Amino acid sequence: MELSDILQTILKSKSILIVDDEEKIRDLLVKYLTKAKCSEAHIVHAADGAEALRKISNQEFGLIIVDIVLPKKNGLELFKEIRSRARTRNIPVLIVSGNLHANVVKQAIVLGAKHILSKPFNYNIFIERVGKCLGVAS
């Protein structure tokens, strides 16, 4: 069974939230996820941390992909908020950033981040990391 089939099975009908202020990155991640057989109808976007929190409050997600550098509420603040809420603390979160300095990575780990991906990346690296985030060994 391919990793994309396993991801589709794990996520079933749950939505995926992509939080990135760059539209081209959001579009690329949608392209990668649909290539991995995730339904575009189950992929939700947010351009900043505040918008993401509103969407998280109103919808259930099986995976959240968060950029570090975001307007209104940065990715680490958003991650901390997700982990502090009983309803969302167990949702897998993949942190993605082109700005992964040692102190940012340390902060993310202190907050409990286990899955961090540095930009740029290709389809195979992204899908492998999504799989690990969802508990699928590749």
3D architecture notes:
The chain has a single domain (14-131), classed as Response regulator (Rossmann fold, 3-Layer(aba) Sandwich), CATH 3.40.50. Helices cover 45% and strands 17% of the residues. It contains six helices and five strands. It has helices at 3-11, 23-35, 49-58, 75-84, 102-110, 123-133, and strands spanning 15-19, 43-46, 61-67, 93-97, 116-118. The protein has a five-stranded parallel β-sheet, sandwiched between helices.
Structural class: alpha/beta
Poorly predicted spans: none
Strands of the biggest beta sheet: in what spatial order? 2-1-3-4-5
- Based on DSSP secondary structure assignment, what is the total number of beta strands? 5
Total domain count? 1
Assign the CATH architecture: 3-Layer(aba) Sandwich
- Put simply, the count of helices is 6
Shape field: globular
CATH fold name, please?
Answer: Rossmann fold
- Main beta sheet, described? 5 strands, parallel
**Residue share in helix:** 40-55%
| Series of H and E elements | HEHEHEHEHEH
Mean pLDDT: 86
Would you state the CATH class? Alpha Beta
Cα(first) to Cα(last) distance is 11 Å
Q: What is the CATH superfamily label?
A: Response regulator
| Portion in beta strands | 15-25%
The Cα radius of gyration reads 14 Å
Quickly list its features:
138 residues; Rossmann fold; five-stranded parallel β-sheet
Note the topology.
Blueprint lengths: L2 H9 L3 E5 L3 H13 L7 E4 L2 H10 L2 E7 L7 H10 L8 E5 L4 H9 L5 E3 L4 H11 L5
Parallel strand pairs: 1-2, 1-3, 3-4, 4-5
Helix pairs in contact: 1-6, 3-4
